[in-house]
Amino acid sequence: MSVTSYNTPADGAKFTSGDSVAFSITTTANGNISLYCDTAADPATVIHTWSKGNVNQETLTYSKVFSTTGTYYWDVHGSYVTNPPSPRSFTVYAVAPKTTTPTPTNNSTQRPLNQQLTFVRPSGAVKADVWLKAGSGAWNKIASVTTALTVNPGTLTGNTTYQWRVDTYNGADRLTTGDTWQFSTLTNPTKATNPSPANGSTQRPLGQVLSWTRPSSATSCDVWFGPSGNMTKVLSATTATTYDPPSLVHSTVYQWRIDTKNAAGTTTGDVWQFTTVTPPAAPTTPTPANGATDVARNQDISWNACARATSYRVYFSTSLAAVEQKQSSALQSPDVTTTSWDTGLLGVNVTYYWRIIAINEAGSVDGPVWNFITGTPVIADPVIRNYKKRLCALAANAANPNRFYYSNDNVPPTMSYVTLSALDTTKPCAMLEAFQKVYIVNNGNYFVVDFCNTALGGITWNYTTNYRPERGSILYQGSAAMVVDCVYTSTVYGFVTNGTFVTGQAVTGNDSSGRATSFTPTTVTNPGAAPLVYPWKPYPNRLSASGNEYGLMPIYASIIRMYRGRCVLAGDKNAPHQWYMSEQGNFYNWAYGSEDQKAPVAGTDTDIGKIGDIIRAVIPYSDDFCIFGCSQTSWLLRGDPAVSASLDNISYVIGIFSDTSWCFDDKSNLYILNPNGIYMLPQGIGVPVCLTENIIPNFGEDFAVDESIHQICMGYDRIRHGILITKTTDGSNQNYWLDLRNSGFFPEEYPAAVGATSLHYYDAMMASYRLLHVGCKDGYIRAFDDGQKADDIISGFAPIAAEMVIGPLPLSKTGSVEGLLVRLNITPADGTDQVLYQIFTAKTAEQVIKAVETAIPSARINGIVANLLKITRPRARGAYFAIRFYSDGQVSTWAVDNLSGEFIGLGMVK
Amino acid sequence: MSDLSIPLPYRGINLNHAASKQPLETSAHINNVRPYDTIDKRARLGQRPGLVRKYATDLGGSVVAICSVTVVEWA
Lengths: 910, 75
Hints:
The structure holds two protein chains of two kinds.
Chain A lengths: L3 E5 L4 E4 L2 E9 L3 E8 L7 E7 L5 E9 L3 E9 L9 E6 L6 E4 L4 E4 L5 E4 L6 E8 L4 E7 L4 E2 L9 E9 L5 E2 L4 E5 L7 E4 L4 E4 L5 E4 L6 E8 L4 E7 L3 E2 L9 E10 L2 E3 L3 E6 L15 E4 L5 E2 L8 E7 L2 H5 L6 E6 L3 E2 L9 E10 L2 E4 L3 E5 L11 E11 L6 E5 L7 E5 L9 E6 L2 E6 L2 E6 L3 E4 L16 E4 L2 E9 L2 E8 L8 E4 L5 E4 L3 E3 L6 E4 L23 E5 L2 E5 L9 E2 L19 E2 L12 E7 L3 E6 L3 E7 L3 E8 L10 E3 L5 E5 L2 E5 L7 E2 L8 H5 L7 E7 L4 E7 L4 E7 L4 E5 L7 E7 L8 E6 L4 E5 L4 E4 L2 E4 L3 E8 L6 E12 L6 E8 L2 H10 L7 E4 L3 E10 L1 E7 L9 E13 L2
Parallel strand pairs in A: 2-8, 10-17, 19-26, 27-34
Antiparallel strand pairs in A: 1-3, 3-6, 4-5, 4-7, 7-8, 9-11, 11-14, 12-13, 12-15, 15-16, 15-17, 18-20, 20-23, 21-22, 21-24, 24-25, 24-26, 28-31, 29-30, 29-32, 32-33, 32-34, 35-36, 36-37, 38-39, 39-40, 40-48, 41-44, 41-47, 42-43, 42-45, 43-44, 45-46, 49-50, 50-51, 51-52, 53-54, 54-55, 55-56, 57-58, ...
Chain B lengths: L2 E3 L24 E2 L1 E4 L6 E5 L2 E4 L8 E12 L2
């Protein structure tokens, strides 16, 4: 019997492909011993035969490289091997493959510190060891895994390069060293950028908010902030990108820093700084200059623009203290952002104080107190031209009936004249001032005396290339321009607005329809000392040589006024009830019937109709109303007759004498002369009041106006606050002075030569001529002069026959008892030359009056008084007395300051 | 016996009453007198002011119409 034992490989041994497997047995068998080995459980493949020649115990070996993986079985057989052990097995494994697909990928960077390591373990690798090396450190096995494919290496260190590998093992626990992979962990974040405010900026507002840009590598920030050199951390690990610092102080340097943070660590940011706003600079350079004098009343104040100022506060006052102390009374609100302030209209010769406070967020800075004094204004002509008021007059000059007189300039006393052909001043004529011209109506003729227009003459109209220009159109000659006012035959009259027109150069223009005007004037007459004169006609046809495009003026008119910008004509002897009104603002358009609200209108052309009475006067009152004073009635026109107007009756019994027998006072009360009395129509045209009925009850008989022989005038004297009413015949005259201060009528009489034939208050530029002017019978224009004691007639001075009678007054308490004038005190006004006096007494009042009328004084009581006179024992006895003061027939004046007397009663009148 | 003020006819003419009833401060006979004197312009009755020529120009006949015109004149 042989004994055989198997030595190697042990049952279940493991080998890796390519390993040499060492078979070893120990046997006592001799002869051929076959080694059987294959993958069958009872192997049948002899892979080797030993030949042993003895029966000694001997170990036999054989090695073989197995490349093919699998489980092998082996045993031995031989002739002399008896009861061999059962087959043993061993397994040959393939080499363990390496792991692949690492995560993080090889050479990746910025891996988070909690990076997990992941890999793909291929089949054949039954176990893996994960090794990790940090930087230059040693390799550390951090895990042995059999199934897991992800290994947690723990918290990594930032800013570190790691190497790792996964060694795999096969079933034979044979190691395959894995590839070395590498990654680097997260680095510290970069710095914050884009600071706002920018580093180093200045004048930052006190509400400055900080902002920055956090880099994507940072997950949060620490914010440091504080005055320069004293930053503190104000925010920790914030994700915000703004910071609002509280309570910034002006004029301070602040520093701030943003430290960025991430898992890798913290990056210290740059230090930035800014400076907060500083208060503004003080105001300087005042206008007007400090202490300036003669400053214009419309002077605004201004100052320099103060550095850093955002607004200004203005203190302005006539009080120095108010400005110095910045009192509210001097404060001008609101604050301004400009460097000037509108003072409005300042006083005359007044000292003003002012100061400016410059303001910004940092605070305010007071400017100094400045002052200036306004000047005394010079009454300068407005704008760029002079205004003059010319007195104009017409006189019934038989030798020269065609003269129009005008004052030369603002310095009378002479008057010049121009002649108007066809003007006949010996016929009824009237004038109206409007639009710097005087319009004249005279015996069926109409004239314009033009003080403002320029005349371009010598024009031929061809109605193809040269149409008469439209009124109001502009004509040009180079840079010169004029506004057309009217056209008469071959002359254009227009108001020059620019430049100067000359002869020999073309003048062009277009009307509103584009029709051209083009001509070269042969004459140019500019306004100067003398006015232009030309007939007053309706505006001529523009498209043809003839026609009445602009209507017709009445054949005759003796009354001319202006109402609502329209010329009003009346007093047409052929149509005494008719009235005519031109277009508003255009005295050259008389084409009635248009529906234009400004169109000309006449009595027969409107719903109002003609007046049912003969029109004697047209009395306009501004734009409010117009009164038609007729022979026996009065009518009130309200509104514009072309639009909607009413014509209401004022009175059916009160008419007016003529177009010159009315006037307004300064309170807009209207006074009219009616043959039966003088009436006053209160302001707003109330109920007429007869002023004379209880004073001069027989006014009609006493005044006895006769239109065929009398010239009646009424005029308001603004200086003396009264109304002069004159009636002049062929020189002789009868007049009243109605004093509006005491509502008294005072009869007056003037020398025949100076009988009034016209009245006009001339509002002259010179104060000494600002008077009620009296046009007189003798061809001179006069005025009342307080310094003159007599009337100026051509041949000298005529004493004024002035008288007044006081009384009759009773000499006792009642008129039935006689009395005695014991003493009479006469106090003439200081400045009286002398005045004569007479004392009349009688038993009855009527006897006294009769004595006065016959000028027979009683009781030898008469005399002259110039100074205070005390008449004692005048022996004036009777029931009634009267005292007459009268002029001495000399060139003298007088006034009575006071009159008093002492009386005693006697017995009954016998 | 005392001094009595005798009223002057400040209210002008009045012809409306009986002679014995002539209202105070009026007169039935008054001419060329105005209530404000020319000396001091006070209300104390006196001779009216004289009419004086303001212009040396003789217009040659009754002055039948007067007006005034405001003119903007060339500078």
